[in-house]
Amino acid sequence: MQAVVYQGPGNIVLKDVPRPTIIEQNDALVRITQTTICGTDLAILKGGVATVTPGRVIGHEGVGIVEAVGSGVRQFKPGDRVIVSCITACGSCEYCRRGIPSNCTEGGWILGNSIDGCQAEYVRVPFADNGLHHIPPSINEETALMLSDIVPTGLEVGVMNGQVKFGDVVTIVGAGPVGLAALLSIQFFSPADIIVVDLDDHRLELAKRLGATMVINNQDSSATAKILQKTNGRGVDVAIEAVGHPLTCKVAQEIIGVGGTIANIGVYSQSAELHKEALWVKNITIRMGVVNTTTIPLLLRTIQSGKLDPSQLITHHFPFSDVLHAYEIFANAAQEQAVKIVLAVGDASDDNARLSTDALVEMIVGQIMQQVSAH
Ligand SMILES: NC(=O)c1ccc[n+]([C@@H]2O[C@H](COP(=O)([O-])OP(=O)(O)OC[C@H]3O[C@@H](n4cnc5c(N)ncnc54)[C@H](O)[C@@H]3O)[C@@H](O)[C@H]2O)c1
Ligand SMILES: [Zn+2]
Ligand SMILES: [Zn+2]
Predict the structure, then answer these.
(1) How many C-beta neighbours within 10 Å does residue 280 have?
(2) Distance 206 CA to ligand 1 centre (A)
(3) Does 351 sit in the ligand 1 pocket, CB within 6 Å?
(4) In angstroms, what is the span from residue 99 Cα to ligand 2's centroid?
(5) Number of helices (H) and strands (E), helices first, in the chain?
């Protein structure tokens, strides 16, 4: 099968590798129909994630069709349409039972990291009953794809860790897919002001359309001063860091107000300073972590009810054969006006055949109408 393989810093290739098989009884084999690229994959490509070693199939976001299951899998069968969570959870270790499956002793974020991942035609999903989610018929695959990682991440690690409340003034630093995903779900908590900071005007424009009340381009490092001015020097109630850079970590610390919470989403490949000498007096909370993806079932309901539409984050579509080009586009997101890129994997005609019942009905009705009008 074709897969994106990490070969060392700065070097990924699309090449033929053996198709994975069921190894453990709790495994499922999923035929990936759509996958995408995460900011974390760019960090891997730069050599910034030490656990990813040469030869690894990368990617931790995907949707697809269950191809086969091991004897211990109860909730899924071949043919099911599923989301692959970026988090693998055994369900029985101490951390899984404490509700922190991101730190599962046998899993956590391992797909596309320490085991082969989703930027491939097939993926082996361990502990499939916990790592897969059924896609309801009313939700299309590319919308569901946004739930593998970015939408739960924005909600759990940004909004929920940030303890956003009605009337809060919040800032999201970073308007990449993850920061914008946080922007989508933060509005359920009714903050008074949502200030979004980035370096990319296109992403900031999108942030405005998605509900930001103020956007700041931080090319001139003016974000701190502008936010303090806007809040009369008080600072914000919640600062969500969705970049993973020492400079943006500093901004979050400079703008946090008394009693506020800094929610750190960004993954750091270098150390960042924590200025306790300035922060201790403000009675603040700092939270950080890896997404657990435990909100996927709730997010599916919210999408079904029409209250959330993560497909608004999708800007580009490519066939999987163009994945290396897609990496270039995502790495040059500002010039390319890119946010989330959907890669269609495998023979799309199979999926089209399955998904186009409506179109088929329309065609048959059309033919009947033609015959009727001809007589
Ligand atoms: N904690 C988790 O579980 C988890 C899960 C997924 C992703 N992440 C991390 O979240 C972060 C964001 O992911 P993404 O996919 O949105 O990445 P991304 O690289 O697409 O987005 C980052 C954004 O930050 C902006 N930016 C960079 N420097 C800035 C600065 N000085 N001031 C303001 N904005 C700046 C960029 O223009 C970009 O739009 C990454 O670090 C990723 O690794 C964490
Ligand atoms: Zn990710
Ligand atoms: Zn576990």
Answers:
(1) 9
(2) 16
(3) no
(4) 20
(5) 15, 15
Low-confidence ranges of the chain (pLDDT < 50): 349, 351-370, 373-375
pLDDT, position 362: 44
Domains and CATH numbers, the chain: 2-149+293-358 (3.90.180.10), 152-288 (3.40.50.720)
Quick check: CB of 310 below 6 Å from ligand 1?
A: no
Amino acid at position 25, single letter: Q
pLDDT of residue 270: 87
Alpha carbons 343 and 4: distance in angstroms, whole number: 12
Q: From residue 30, give the alpha-carbon distance in Å to each of 72, 124, 133, 223.
A: 16, 6, 12, 44
Residue 371 confidence (pLDDT) = 52
C-beta 157 within 6 A of ligand 1: yes
Predicted confidence at residue 112, as pLDDT, reads 98
Ligand having the closest approach to the CA of 44: 1
Ligand of minimum distance to the alpha carbon of 330: 1
Q: Is the dihedral of CA 346, 347, 350, 353 positive or negative?
A: positive
Report the pLDDT value the prediction gives residue 272, as an integer from 0 to 100.
96
Burial class of 88 by CB neighbour count within 10 A (0 to 12, 13 to 18, 19+) = buried
pLDDT at position 354, please?
Answer: 47
| pLDDT on residue 269 | 82
Nearest to residue 218, comparing CAs of 203, 232, 206? 203
Contact 62, 81 (CB under 8 A): no
How many angstroms does the Cα of residue 49 sit away from the middle of ligand 2?
12
- C-alpha of residue 230 to centroid of ligand 2, in Å: 32
Q: How far apart are CA 271 and CA 279, in angstroms?
A: 18
Query: Rounded CA gap, 230 and 52, in Å?
Result: 42
pLDDT for 361 = 44
Nearest bound ligand to the CA of residue 107 = 3
Please report the atom of ligand 1 found closest to the CA of residue 156.
3
